[in-house]
């Protein structure tokens, strides 16, 4: 087991490095980078702004107008070369790409992610600021979805073909077919003061003055804010986990060892939870980390937007749009590393469920 864990940890190094190399190369060819955006904004603001940014007087700026910049940026036409160079240095683009990449990787190994281009805050502090929203959405949605889906899936497997199975399958399929953002909009219209009832809050995770509430009211207020977004996000995951659980149990129930266990006189409960459960839960455990990572890092963008929740999903989207590369690369690095670690934890959970698995004999 120890050798397997070490091999997996060592394999994470080239994996994360490859992800960062590929992402960095893509950004080098993507148009509309931070320097180009800054130059375009300056070009549209007029000479007064250009003069203030360049730091020179009016006479110096006018004298520079006739000079052509040496930069290859299309937005730099008509701007002083010194101004273009100053903006490139501000964003760190005054160095060759290889030097910038090596410096970035060296800093990331120390978990030094630098400053955001457009926010007066370090990247790590910015991520910490948005983390509670994403943790709340991802953690509670996953726990609630699996907490309901596993018992429901087992019940459906035991009553396969019954009215209960048919009706629950109909509801599950409808829930899976409807996109989460449509459910979110419907919930807002119905229960958040849209057109009908104003029962649940629409914005944020807490109410104004939350820090002054008694502890029990803080807990209630926190969960009251989570009801609508968790409901909107949970339908798809709820349907997937339920059907996966049912199919896993049906597959195991039909195997020979279950027939043998029943022939020995074991009760149905002992057969189901003493033998079938351990084997059927293998696929469920394998899907749990992926479901959590998907919701935690990328699946909540639309939900965060609709319910005005400022989390990591919205942060990542805004950073890509504005080309805030320090935030983009830092979140990519952290999420990739965390995803690989959770994948390893998932494999170790396999062994916990079924000790017969031998990781030492595996190549990776």
UniProtKB/TrEMBL annotation:
Would I find Transmembrane helix among this entry's keywords? yes
Give the record's GO CC terms: plasma membrane
List the PROSITE patterns hit by this protein, alphabetically.
Answer: ABC_TM1
InterPro entries in the cross-refs:
MetI-like (IPR000515), MetI-like_sf (IPR035906)
Spell out where the chain crosses the membrane: 9-30, 135-155, 167-200, 222-245, 280-307, 327-353
Please report the record's description of how this protein sits within the membrane: Multi-pass membrane protein
The residues covered by the ABC transmembrane type-1 domain are: 131-346
**Alphabetic keyword roster:** Cell inner membrane, Cell membrane, Membrane, Transmembrane, Transmembrane helix, Transport
Alphabetized CDD domains for the sequence: TM_PBP2 (cd06261)
| Primary residence | membrane
Q: What is one Gene Ontology biological process annotated in the Swiss-Prot or TrEMBL record?
A: transmembrane transport
Q: Where in the cell is it found?
A: Cell inner membrane; Cell membrane
Q: Which family does it belong to?
A: Belongs to the binding-protein-dependent transport system permease family.
**Protein's UniProt name:** Microcin ABC transporter permease
